[in-house]
Amino acid sequence: MTEGTLENGTLASLGPESTPTMPNSTFVPIGSSSPQEKFAQSHAGHETQHSTMALILLIALFGFQFVILFWKQKHYRSFQAVTLIGLWLIPMYIFGIQAQFWRFLSIWCLYSIANFRVIYLASRKPLDHKTPRLVYNWFSIVYKLCYAVGVTGYAIIMLTFFGIVQLFYDFSEVADLGIILLSYGLYFGVLSRDFVEICTDRMASTLGYYNKDGFPRKHLRVVICAVCGGTTENREHDKVHQLTCRHVFHEECIRGWCLIGKKDICPYCKEKVDMKEFKTNPWDTQQQLYLSLLDGVRYLVVWQPIIFATVQLAYHIFGLE
């Protein structure tokens, strides 16, 4: 036997354990490619296409931001109406009809029926002096209910995140429940705030003591509440509140106007109202942080689907995949 070689008999006598192998070697048949090579081959030359798609997405995101900001500043009423319609209909179509979440669709239908009844009362002419209180009380109840549901959902999510829920219940079911409750609380809370703003403007316009763009059509007498049009003389049954501008209102009316109706000015003279005069909670406060949260929810629910639908349309027009 020559040095450095093995004879056939010696090689056959070696067992599987003695057969020399190359460490970390992978057998690849001749003519075949690894998954990484196949991926690279299928996407060869697509770098320019991917860059174009990313550029279109960035232009859409930033462009819509400027369009929305300009629209909101120049034509707030039309922006408010379109946003409210989108906030009301888009989740119903996506989650209720397409995703077939029948529970959400049922709650949405009941909420819409009750809301349309309230809007109808707020739009009637002449306006009954009890209607503003009814409207503000209804939305106050909705806010408190949404707040309780949202906080419960948030608490469940936090308890699940820290592993406390897993000690007693199934992880996936409880986590889903928390997300659903938080989503319901935020969605119907934001939707209610936008609906009540419409109702507030309509009631104030009907009474004539408030004009958003000019002077009031009516002169406010000392004993009249500018929010509901009723008298403030019967102070034994109706508590009254005087603002720093010296105008007097029913306490329920002015609280509803400022806290529920999202107005921080006097309903007659438009002087700024100090919101610290009223007791507030996280669902009816006018603080900037909460308003920013609501604007964020509106943006995600209404404008985000529209932006991505526009981007997908642009991809289709330019033949990008």
Structure in words:
A hairpin with a 5-residue loop joins strand 1 and strand 2. Helices cover 61% and strands 2% of the residues. It has a two-stranded antiparallel ribbon. Helix 3 crosses helix 9, helix 5 packs parallel to helix 7 and helix 6 crosses helix 8.
Our measurement of the CA-to-CA distance between the termini, rounded to an integer number of angstroms, reads: 64 Å
Helix-strand pattern: HHHHHHHEEHH
Biggest sheet, spatial arrangement of strands? 1-2
**Poorly predicted segments:** 24-28
Helical residue percent? 55-70%
Residue-averaged pLDDT, rounded? 79
Give a short account of the largest sheet: 2 strands, antiparallel
Helix count, DSSP H or I runs of 4 or more residues: 9
Summarize the structure.
This protein is an all-alpha fold. The chain is built from 9 helices and 2 strands.
